[in-house]
Write a structure and sequence with these properties.
Elements (H helix, E strand, L loop, with lengths): L6 E3 L5 E3 L13 E4 L9 E4 L8 E4 L7 E9 L6 E8 L7 E6 L8 E2 L19 E4 L10 E5 L10 E10 L4 E8 L5 E10 L6 E4 L11 E7 L7 E10 L4 E3 L3 E4 L5 E12 L13 E15 L5 E4 L1 E9 L4 E7 L12 E3 L2 E3 L1 E4 L11 E6 L6 E8 L22 E9 L13 E11 L6 E13 L9
Parallel strand pairs: 8-11
Antiparallel strand pairs: 1-2, 3-4, 4-5, 6-7, 7-10, 8-9, 12-13, 13-16, 14-15, 14-17, 17-18, 17-19, 20-21, 20-32, 21-22, 22-28, 23-24, 23-27, 25-26, 28-29, 29-30, 30-31, 31-32
Length: about 475
């Protein structure tokens, strides 16, 4: 019937009618059966409207609702925008309104994006395989002829990894600070330190030149901050920015220009000792020795100015899983070590950095031995190192000899006198100190042994608290 008016029913429920003049069809005929040429038994019906020149077509195919597909959204951590994508198959519906719904709680979408234009694709007058929308939202949803993609975007990112390092050196007006930057596959455009005082939140910056700007390895960075107030507490942090807009700011560290708090490690060189031999005529005055004797000493001062003598100390770190902040800690109590993690990798494991001295031993029940005075140019630090007669390391005690189950009490009186500030040494007074060392040893001889020499102290860490649990 009417072979010159070819009709064909698509499997998707569409009917395509070839162009032609329908006015010759008998207007008394109100319907025509259109056979499905694909043998899918989806016959259609051609129905008369006002005239046959504008026929209406129905089909035996059930029309599906528009099909929505959500594609994962991408968002840069720490930024305020996100790119969201999705795709829509109209399935013969005319889509009048398309937008993305989103919200901060799953299932509660209280925000809409700007409407997505439906034209030119979204129309039932043409067969559309699967038009895709690329815009600002993503998820799955459907409400008939008005289509909304809704849901919470899935965040994916490979951001820069930044670690704010410790202070390397300080002088009276400046400080050298460090850090690590891992591009993590990005290309870096800028790296700088931000710093501010405890009294002002105004950020100051110091750019860091980069010889390497990409890759997946840690890049050490160092910067020198100058023009600082010598009596002020400063905070600083490292920041890196990539070409794609990714940026990461490290956690805050601090240093106090007016404080000598931190860990000090020094070398003592004994150059004089008094004579106590059989033929000695002067047993009180130390004289030069033929070969100097060297000893290592470890001191720590807190922000209150309290000084402690240490036998050993381990540098460890702790990671805050909520803020991803890493903080360094000085541990003198070995029982606390399991609560921390190491700072350097050895044989595939993180281990701490251990520092110790065999030359200053004291009561094993103490992790630190308090001393008097403070660490600063022109000041003194002094104290008593007591080695009891039953101390395991008492040199007169022998574990197996019946006559030496106990030793003799040994007392060491030590005194360190710091030189005045050396104006020719930019590190003097803050990170490097020199002075005179004096010690009187009682108990090893009936005449006290008096020793003299010099010392050099270097501050290796500005961590002001021992065994901190936060």
């Amino acid at each position: 019937m009417y072979p010159n008016k070819a009709l064909h029913i698509n499997g998707g429920g569409y009917v395509d009618i070839s162009s032609g003049d329908y006015s010759s069809i008998n207007n008394q005929v109100t319907t025509m059966t259109l056979k499905d040429q694909t043998n899918n038994n989806n016959d259609g019906t051609l129905k008369k409207t006002a005239t046959w020149s504008t026929p209406r077509v129905t089909s035996g195919v059930t029309l599906d609702q528009p099909t929505l597909t959500t594609i994962s959204a991408s968002q840069i951590s720490g930024r305020t925008n996100a790119t969201l994508t999705g795709s829509i198959n109209p399935n013969n519906y005319t889509l009048t309104d398309i937008m993305f719904e989103y919200g901060t709680t799953s299932g509660q979408y209280d925000h809409n994006t700007v409407a997505v234009p439906a034209n030119p694709w979204l129309s039932s007058d043409a067969i559309i395989p699967k038009p895709k929308l690329i815009t600002g939202g993503s998820s799955i949803g459907n409400n008939g002829t008005t289509t909304k993609l809704r849901g919470t975007p899935q965040v994916t990112s490979s951001n820069i990894v930044v670690t704010t390092g410790e202070v390397i050196s300080i002088n009276t007006t400046g400080v050298k600070i460090s850090g690590l930057v891992n591009p993590n596959g990005n290309v870096l455009t800028a790296v700088h330190f931000e710093y501010y005082t405890a009294l002002s939140a105004t950020l100051m910056t110091q750019a860091v030149p980069l010889s390497v700007t990409s890759g997946t390895n840690d890049i050490p960075v160092i910067a020198t901050l100058s023009g600082l107030d010598p009596f002020t507490l400063y905070y600083y942090r490292l920041k890196a920015i990539a070409t794609n807009g990714f940026e990461t700011t490290g956690f805050d560290q601090s240093f106090n220009m007016s404080s000598n708090a931190g860990l000090w490690i020094g070398q003592i060189e004994l150059t004089q000792v008094n004579e106590v031999g059989y033929k000695s005529t002067d047993t009180q005055t130390p004289t030069d020795v033929s070969s100097p004797f060297q000893m290592k000493i470890i001191l720590h001062e807190n922000t209150a100015g309290d000084v402690n003598l240490l036998r050993k100390v381990t540098l460890m770190q702790k990671v805050n899983t909520l803020t991803n902040q890493v903080t360094r800690h000085l541990i003198t109590d070995d029982n606390l070590l399991p609560a921390y993690e190491g700072v350097v990798r050895r044989d595939g494991k993180l281990v701490g950095i251990r520092m110790s001295s065999l030359f200053f031993d004291f009561d094993s029940a103490l992790n630190e031995l308090p001393l008097m005075g403070s660490i600063a140019p022109g000041n003194t630090v002094s104290g008593f190192v007591y080695l009891a007669k039953d101390h395991p390391n008492n040199p007169f005690r022998h574990l197996y000899h019946p006559d030496h189950k106990q030793g003799i009490d040994i007392i060491r009186e030590i005194k360190m006198t710091f030189d005045p500030l050396d104006t020719n040494n930019p590190q003097s007074g803050v990170y490097n100190l020199k002075g005179k060392y004096e010690e009187t040893l009682k108990g090893v001889h009936k005449i006290p042994i008096k020793m003299r020499g010099t010392f050099v102290l270097n501050r290796v860490s500005v961590i002001a608290k021992l065994n901190a649990n936060q």
